[in-house]
Amino acid sequence: MSDPRIRLRDKLCREIAQAEHDARIHTRREAGRLGDVAPGRALLAISEHAAEVEPLLAKVAHQPIGLHIARVVADVFSAARHFLFDRLIDSDRSFRATLIGLKHGVDATRLLREVVLLTNDVELLKFCDLILVERLCLIEDAEQAMSWFAENSALALRSSGRHFALAAPEAAMMTAMKV
Q: CB of 54 within 8 A of CB of 21?
């Protein structure tokens, strides 16, 4: 039987491959729905970061088939979320669900980092540090941008399936006109 740490490392690499794939896709879709407002810009920055680091995992994980399968699974769940679930929930909840997914990826990366410290896998350790340093700052920016939903509560309550990409001043004007 193989070393349990190696099996855990490989499992976490596949999980992170899914998480990074989702981080690239979900954040971009959500940013597109929100438009050029603080939460949308914060998610777009995360998507761009994920697009930069996602290919690096394939270079250091050494399991091309496992990572490919992980991305296929991520695509299936991503499509279900995009075409069904995100269209049924409020935009603020969809935004927060995206943040939960991002935090899941960070937690998996933190655990992988601990495993690779024990297995002396320097390449994967550098990869984990690369993700964690930047991603945690980007997630913090997204969390700070959540105040936009409070300031634009009428838009926050709209289904995220309805595109409402308005700039914040335009959104405020639309809200004021409805009152």
A: yes
Domain ranges of the chain: 4-178
Neighbours of 100 (CB within 10 A): 8
Please count the CA atoms within 13 angstroms of the CA of 151 that sit on its side-chain side: 15
Other Cβ atoms within 10 Å of 29 Cβ, number:
19
Which amino acid makes up residue 85? F
Could you tell me which of 155, 147, 149 has the C-alpha nearest to residue 175?
A: 155
pLDDT tens column, 150-178: 998 777 666 655 544 444 444 443 334 34
Q: Are residues 165 and 35 in contact, defined by beta-carbon separation less than 8 angstroms? A: yes
Which token pair is 94?
A: 């969809």
Which tokens belong to 29? 């879709």
What whole-number distance in Å separates Cα of residue 65 and Cα of residue 63? 6
Q: Who contacts 92 (Cβ-Cβ below 8 Å, separation ≥6)?
A: 146, 149, 156, 157
Amino acid at 12: L
Asked if residues 5 and 111 have their Cβ atoms less than 8 Å apart, the reply is no
Comparing 44 with 81, the larger pLDDT belongs to 44
pLDDT higher than threshold 90 for residue 76 = no
Count of C-beta atoms within a 10 Å radius of residue 81: 19
- Those residues with Cβ within 8 angstroms of residue 147's Cβ, 6 or more apart along the chain or in another chain: 38
